[in-house]
Amino acid sequence: MKLQIKRYFDDSYKTYDNNADIQKIVAQELSDFITPTKCDNLLELGIGSGVFTTFLLEKINARSYFGLDLAYKMLISSKNKFKDFHLINGDIDTLPLKIEHFDIIASSSTLQWLEYPEKTINDLLNNLKKGAKCYFSIFLDGTFNEMKEVSKITKFGSIYSLKNAEFYKNIFNRKDIYLKFFEKKYVLFYNSVIDFLKTHKKTGARYTEKKAIAGKQSFLNFCRLYEELYKTEDSKIPVTYNILYIICEKR
Asked: Which CATH code for domain 2-143+161-188+242-250?
């Protein structure tokens, strides 16, 4: 799983920034929950090419900024933008850092890729120091709902299995954590199904766990049915995203 995810994101390091439409929207909205502050050590999980980082820097003045990402080429992209950052190539599920050193931990559009979310998130929360704050955004079940329905009918394509909001709420809902949740749905519009699929592919966020039927006729059937079912009056293609925002502090 992780090797494939890494490969997809590495392959898209040159195209990510120009195609990460929803990721940019979510990053900005997550940053809106952050009160401007100063801190010693800040950790961004899944820093990627730095889409969320730019918003973080507008809100947080950190003496030391650490960024971790699974995809090495994405990190190189960030290194070229943020010269003084400490960047680490690693896996959040086997975090090579001591969480208790950090005052703020942030992550946008990343934690849905965890292989062991219960264990990894609980380990992170257990090791937070008192007063440390976290800001997270996570893609939820309901994302790509249109594509999921069309795939069921046409047997073309597959969708990565995302968790629902209750799954994450049950993990974060602890006596030692002060917690706020916000769930929000977005609908973006594309000129065609092909336009959407090309854009999505260029972000690297395309690991799905399953091998799907792939053939020209199946693909054409998929595109045709998607348009028949969902095309708007102005001939646009809707794509739904469901996002959970989490703000928490260790008591």
From this structure: 3.40.50.150
